Structure formats: structure tokens, C-alpha cells
Amino acid sequence: MSKLPDHESQVLAVHATFIHTVVFALLDPAKRPMLEQHLQTAEKNGWAALTGAIRKIMQGQTDNAVFAPLDEEDRIIVKSILKGLQNPQTLPPINDKPDPSAAAPGLAMLVRQAGGGDMNALQMLGAMAGQMAAAGGSMARLGAVLKQMLDGERDADKLSAGMDDKGRELVSKILAELDKNKLN
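User: That's the sequence. What structure does it adopt?
Assistant: C-alpha cells below.
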């Protein structure tokens, strides 16, 4: 079985386009109004701590205090932005595709939290399902079955019907993660 990329690489692959957008907007003041629109959207989607850190960087603050309110994923993103400002060659490649199977723990966590009444998790699941639907194929099918998982469906065959091998593998991994905690 192939080894999954480390967590930091996975985070950078998922957020590479956003990181590039931020760095190049910070390097070109003419692009800052566009960046502000991206930040407002990110903030509305639950990324307030990250957008706050980016706004501090926009104001010239680059010390360790920028990292104080951030979780691990946000720290990885901000660290990459700061390194990219010093040397754009260090930016993560945009064409790197994250390993979808590495998403299983995060998706399972969102299903558990949303099932427990967490409205932010429910909104994030809804947004992700919409993005998956737009991607088509097995991803669209996965987006459609997230609601079924939220409602308690755990039959792998039923949930992965119509998916390719990678889609079925991802569903199995999500179900295994959900089964680990039996919280939903």
C-alpha cells in the first residue's frame, strides 16, 4: 500500500491556490481589493482566525504573534504564506492534487460534529457537498451520500454504489473513521 503524504504536505496541496492568491496579492498592492474579497468569503466560511492572521500580515506584522490564535492547519498555511513572501519559489505547487483518502478523518469528524448539532460543521459539510457535486463523478456521488452518512447510514455497498475504486475506498475509510468512535 502506498504511503500517504504527511499532514503538512496534504494541507499545502489542498490550500495551494489560496496560498498563491494571498502571496501574490500581498506582493502586488493592486491585487489587494481582490484579496479582501477572498478574505471576506473565507471569514464567512468559518476561517476567521486565518483571515485575521492574513490581515495582520497585510499590515506588516510577521512575528510569532501572528500564529497565536491559529490551529495547526492555519499555522501551516500562514507559515507557507510568510515563506512565500520571502521567496515565491517556496510556494506549494498548484498542480499537486491532495490524496482524497487522506480526507477521510476530516470528513468523518465533520459528519460526527454535524450529527451532534454543530451548525458550523453542518454548513461546512453542505459547502463541501456542493463543491463535490461540481467536480462530478465519484466526488459528486460522495457529496450526495454525505447526507446519508449524517443520517446514520453505514452500509458501504449502498453508500458507494456507482463510484469508482477510489470513491469506494474513500467511503470505506470514512466509515472506518466513524466506526472508531461510534459517536454518530
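Residues 100-181 form one domain.
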